[in-house]
Design a protein that fits this description.
Layout (H helix, E strand, L loop, with lengths): L9 H15 E5 L1 E9 L5 E7 L9 E5 L5 H8 L3 H8 L8 H21 L6 H10 L14 H5 L1 H8 L11
Helix pairs in contact: 1-2, 4-5
Length: about 170
């Protein structure tokens, strides 16, 4: 049976992924408002946008996405189904694609993390959902000073109050 896979080599897949990235994003400089030294006719400072410089003198840049990176869009660009992409992601079936697939997953995860940290409107439910369900992020809850389930639920306090325990000893939640 002939090999009917659309992408037979990692180089072919990398070229197609890079095309998807170039079609949906661009590299922009990070900028900051800086006072130009001038005032407008009402006495307000005139601000200009300047590129932010890193310590080494280079301009700090970021990838701006017209459409956020996503598996569905990638599959459409590659001309493959989600199932085919899932097969490509299987390192046992396709070890030749492991590096390209990992780069794509890292790129998508990085976009999500950056959005989580920088999104101005703080509408983050979708970002958090995606990170938790696709990138194994977990919201960790730590409980300190609880020795029993009764203490955790506050049930141990009821018994102490009934026995005439000192009310000041009850923690104030």
């Amino acid at each position: 049976m002939p090999n009917r896979r659309k992408y037979k080599t990692a180089k072919q897949l990398r070229t197609a992924v890079d095309r998807y990235i170039r079609k949906n994003s661009r590299i922009l400089p990070r900028t900051e408002e800086v006072w130009s030294g001038e005032l407008d006719d009402k006495g307000h400072r005139v601000m200009t946008l300047n590129a932010i410089q890193a310590e080494d003198g280079s301009t700090i840049e970021y990838r701006a996405w017209a459409i956020p990176p996503n598996v569905g869009g990638l599959c459409r660009e590659l001309g493959i189904s989600r199932q085919t992409w899932a097969d490509y992601c299987n390192r046992e079936k396709h070890p030749e694609f492991a590096e390209v697939v990992q780069d794509v997953q890292d790129m998508m995860q990085t976009w999500l993390e950056e959005e989580l940290l920088t999104r101005p409107d703080k509408e983050l439910k979708g970002i958090i959902f995606n990170l938790e369900n696709n990138y194994r992020y977990r919201n960790h809850v730590e409980v300190h000073g609880v020795s029993t389930v009764e203490d955790l639920l506050g049930l141990g306090l009821i018994g102490k109050e009934e026995k005439g325990a000192d009310q000041d000893a009850v923690p104030d939640f």
